[in-house]
Write a structure and sequence with these properties.
CATH class of the largest domain in chain A: Alpha Beta
Distance between the termini of chain A: 54 Å
Largest interface: A-B, 115 and 115 residues
Largest sheet of chain A: 7 strands, antiparallel
CATH superfamily of the largest domain in chain A: nicotinate phosphoribosyltransferase
CATH architecture of the largest domain in chain A: Alpha-Beta Barrel
CATH topology of the largest domain in chain A: nicotinate phosphoribosyltransferase
Mean pLDDT of chain A: 93
Number of helices of chain A: 16
Structural class of chain A: alpha/beta
Oligomer: homodimer
Low-confidence stretches of chain A: none
Strand content of chain A: 15-25%
Number of domains of chain A: 2
């Protein structure tokens, strides 16, 4: 899908580099494992849809410091006294580690590692910021999209939010993630080019305002795009605009409503379109939509065929951040590998590399997830859950090409269908999906606490 | 500040390109003016701080279509039947227009044009998506930062949110905007390199977890960064960590708290630091902070010197979108220039190019803004307000280099100080800042409605 953005290795928090220097100068080069997860779901979500892995792996394969990156660092007061050897190390820096990950499009829950990195500790540390922002943002948007798509009950949702996204690049990533979450496509052309997301477009008010003569505007646009034109009819007077379409003898593929009472208007518009023989003309609606507005419109029987959703989707407006974390779980010391845990108030991190086992009933419906040690034998827990994390990168190289976006989207659709009763409801159920830690993991945490003298 | 990102001309909504094709094929080449504004402030904001202009102008100076952009478009079913001449036009596409803008760092309110573009209509249309996402995102974050900075009453705020931003690039733009809004700096190294934002870093839990021996971790880090080290003390037990610092004989520049009851803990930590003669050691706090938490901590007398603010700032979590719009206000026709207005329900757009006049009292405090016609004589309204929009680009070239980020930040600080009573309060005042349209503009709207037959 054409060239990708060059991601500077400086896309990181300064402390990653100061810690890198301290590890380097103190000859601390052991392998470390970090896990990326969301501690708990926002109260507005009952599941998340993992996304962003492909961008993450692409970044890990190409991360390096350019000379001017290093010159910039060297000139910072905090680094100016460091030896050349650290900067020489940065010159040769590449990511040489191993990555385990949950496939994109898979539902995940709080505490579940979406990704695990095992690499020399400096490498694992420097990539933290990029990985967190990429994985949690795409996961955020894919998860929101799944809700909007569910609300539309089979009608198409086009992601329309580029102009409201957090900068141009966020719009492109949002479009990709929204497609994974089940959207039909996006208005963002760059997302089409870069990721192959299907692109859709209608018509802006400005076009009809520029023409002044609305009917002439409709005619010229329809003439140029006979099979694709979606005519925007609310610039001046919605019902009047339909008469102009009829008067001009046009048969647009669809008309778009972008203001007013969409429930009422869509019924009036449908009735009139049918009266004049434009039964094939679809109704496309936009205007500050989200999953609740869409569900409400459909409950009213609004004859809307497709929806364009902008701000609410591209910014996950009701829950605009996931609070993802990236935690050290083990590290190689002179005495061999050793677990790591953290006990800060309300921010406990379980020790050791983990695997998630997902239990399903005989119909494939999710029953329970168990977060266990990576090397744990399922049988210890008397379950036959499927492991969710698999190895996708070794020694800094992908083990296989990522699945196509269409496959990821299809996986997501199937997996969402397998969620237990209530989890697809727009109103969040009182009972969260059951996720527990294995007995072995609970024991490891207790041991780690004891070892560190924490009661 | 080193190289900037190449922004593909495909960072746009598909309809901009279909409309461009329609304008092109129908020989609609007149100059058009579009204004970018926020219709109304989110209810969580009493003013906005304009930001993002520099990135906008940089984009306008370099926008063009690469051959592979054009090949991608040509391959899309919607475009495949178009003539070569449209694609040839795109090959030569450059932005040749004029831009008027409010300087970055200036407070703005609902309905006030932050930017006005006058250009051949195709050019003005294609750049819409990029301009909206860039200006409204940076404005969003600068505005949020101003609130967080106000809450800290002179204490430093470091923007810490890259990992929670909407993708890596959003983190870089957020860091720039947060600095304009008054933050001391950012943790984002790329924002330091690209924009010269001061960069700050502390220490992560992972570092101390990797060492296992917390005291040894503190020692090694402090030894390497004697003047800069901010030691994170809550990995296991906060007060115990202080004893380790004392035991090791360290004199850190600061200690950082990242969990627990920050009000209580900061008092205990301050007391202990003072007891052991570490009066110079500052206290830095983070952990899900926002303007309300900071105000509350300071009201409790928490002896915190600096704050790190992440998610709430980098995503403007309480109001994550501004709903910016970009509206056609006039267009050149065969009969000469002509105003354009829009009357969709609740989405009226006033006709014609505008200027904003800001009235101040004798102390420089803002009193009222009047949105008037661009060519309006201030005296018609008996006021002597200062015009806020000035011409910054002509024929696609900047008229001057942008002011430095430090100047923009200083302007913002001064202008925020000039806001009327109540507008800097964290709780939004019942009374909004007064912004009205000039009498001439109200008349033009009435005329336009009459002309279009809207009552």
């Amino acid at each position: 899908m054409a060239e990708s953005l060059r991601h500077s290795a400086l896309f990181t928090d300064l402390y990653e580099l100061t810690m890198a220097a301290a590890y380097f100068e103190n000859n601390f080069r052991g392998q470390a494992s970090f896990e990326l997860f969301v501690r708990s779901l926002p109260k507005e979500r009952s599941f998340l849809l993992a996304a962003g892995l492909d961008q993450t792996l692409e970044y890990l394969e190409q991360i390096h410091f350019e000379n001017d990156d290093i010159e910039y660092l060297r000139a910072q007061p905090i680094f100016s006294h460091l030896s050349n050897s650290f900067f020489d190390y940065l010159k040769g820096f590449r990511f040489s580690g191993e990555v385990w990950a949950i496939p994109e499009g898979t539902p995940v829950f709080g505490e579940e590692p979406i990704l695990r990195i095992t690499a020399p500790i400096i490498e694992a540390q420097i990539v933290e910021t990029f990985l967190l922002s990429t994985i949690t943002f795409e996961t955020l948007i894919a998860s929101k999209a799944a809700r909007v798509v569910a609300a539309a009950q089979g009608r198409g949702i086009v992601e329309f939010g580029s102009r409201r996204a957090h900068g141009p690049e966020a719009g492109v990533l949002a479009a990709r993630a929204a497609y994974i979450g089940g959207c039909t496509g996006t208005s963002n052309v760059e997302a089409g080019r870069r990721f192959g997301v299907p692109i859709y477009g209608t018509l802006a008010h400005s076009f009809l305002m520029a023409y002044q003569d609305e009917e002439k505007g409709f005619q010229d646009f329809e003439k140029l795009f006979p099979d694709h034109a979606v005519l925007l009819i609310d610039t001046y007077d919605t019902l009047d605009a339909i008469e102009k379409i009829v008067h001009a003898g046009l048969r647009p593929r669809a008309v778009r409503l972008d203001s007013g009472d969409l429930g009422q208007l869509s019924k009036q518009v449908r009735r009139r379109l049918d009266q004049v023989g434009l039964r094939e003309t679809r109704i496309f609606a936009s205007s500050d939509l989200d999953e609740f507005v869409i569900a409400d419109l459909l409950a009213q029987g609004a004859p809307i065929d497709n929806f364009g959703v902008g701000s609410a989707l591209a910014t996950s407006k009701d829950a605009p951040t996931l609070g993802g974390v990236y935690k050290l779980v083990d590290v190689e010391t002179n005495e061999g590998p050793s677990y790591r845990a953290k006990f800060s108030e309300n921010k406990v991190t379980y020790p050791g590399r983990k695997q998630i086992f997902r239990m399903r009933d005989e119909n494939g419906i999710y029953q329970e997830d168990i977060i266990a040690c990576a090397d744990e034998n399922c049988e210890d827990e008397n379950h036959d859950g499927e492991p969710l994390l698999s190895c996708v990168m070794r020694q800094g190289k992908r083990l296989a090409a990522s699945p196509s976006l269409d496959i990821i989207r299809a996986v997501a659709e199937k997996e969402i269908a397998d969620l237990p009763e209530g989890l697809r409801d727009l109103r969040i159920p009182g009972k969260a999906y059951p996720v527990r830690f294995s007995r072995k993991l609970e024991m490891l945490l207790a041991e780690a606490k004891q070892r560190m003298g924490v009661v």
